[in-house]
Design goal:
With 98 residues, the protein is of the alpha+beta class. The protein is built from three helices and five strands; from the N terminus they run βαβαββαβ.
């Protein structure tokens, strides 16, 4: 069971609480987690990843176990603590401005 924490605006859009629990088949990777998230909550398709390229949207970051995973390959395995549900996978809206 993978635990995913979404930013407030995506929680509102998907009508979920602070944390979503997902079953992921196969290895726990960013791609498999996001695929499961979008399959379970179709309204989130295109909000985290581009519809066509499936690349991370600008101003969206991914964190787990105090590590920024935003630039890791999508098929790289997530830390064991995330795969076992001990730690959540965080989807964070980045801030910009000046």
């Amino acid at each position: 069971m993978i635990r995913v924490v979404l930013p407030a605006h995506l929680r509102t859009l998907a009508r979920v609480g602070e944390e979503v629990k997902l079953e992921v088949s196969g290895p726990a990777t960013q791609r498999s987690v996001l695929d499961a998230l979008e399959a379970g909550y179709p309204v989130l398709r295109g909000t985290i990843r581009d519809h066509d390229t499936l690349r991370r949207r600008p101003f969206v970051r991914f964190f787990a176990c105090e590590q920024d995973l935003s630039h890791e390959p999508p098929d790289a395995r997530l830390p064991d603590a995330v795969a076992t549900g001990a730690e959540p996978y965080l989807v964070v809206g980045a801030m910009a401005g000046g």
